[in-house]
Amino acid sequence: MERKESILIVDDDPSIRKVLAAILEEKGYNVETADTGRKGITKSKTKFYNLALIDIRLPDMEGIELLTQMKQTVPKMLKIMITGYPSLQNAVEALNRGADAYIIKPLDIDDALSVIENLLEKQRESLKMTQEKIADYIETRVKQLEREEICK
Q1: CA 100, CA 11: separation in Å to the nearest integer?
Q2: pLDDT grade, residue 75 (50/70/90)?
Q3: Which residues contact 90 (CB under 8 A, 6 or more apart)?
């Protein structure tokens, strides 16, 4: 089944980018990769991604900084930090700066997919609720305008 969600992988390790991209594409996601934080920012400014997987250590910036900058480019994009250098301080800082999840390398692919799929499902539900609220608002507003027109 082809999915509409797009995922950006930002990691300096080519093997991690390649393996994650292959697995996610096999699951039906549209996947793009970047090997630096700057490239990740550029991509997030030019294309919408539902989710980004961000390595905490990148050659040109810390993943926490990238997380903050990506939040400014696409506030609703889900962001998952991935790291081979876990620490409580990194986890807390990442979550405080807007990460939606924190995954430790080496990745357990089943667990990582579960986290990704659960977050994307919540995003889909949120979008559906937002669309329903907008539709309800429009319907109510049309009825109000119709009544105002009748009362004139």
Answers
A1: 17
A2: low
A3: 56, 64, 81, 83, 102
Q: Which stretch of DSSP H or E encloses residue 81?
A: strand 78-83
Specify whether the CB–CB gap between 9 and 34 falls below 8 A. Answer: yes
Q: Domain map of the chain by residue range? A: 6-124
CA angle in degrees (0–180, nearest 5) for 101-61-43? 70
**Residue 103: which H helix or E strand, with range?**
strand 101-104
Token readout for 12 is 């300096």
DSSP H/E element including 69: helix 63-73
CA 44 vs. chain centroid, Å, equals: 10
Asked if pLDDT for residue 151 goes beyond 90, the answer is: no
Amino acid 8: pLDDT: 97
Cβ atoms of 52 and 8 closer than 8 Å: yes
Architecture of domain 6-124: 3-Layer(aba) Sandwich (3.40)
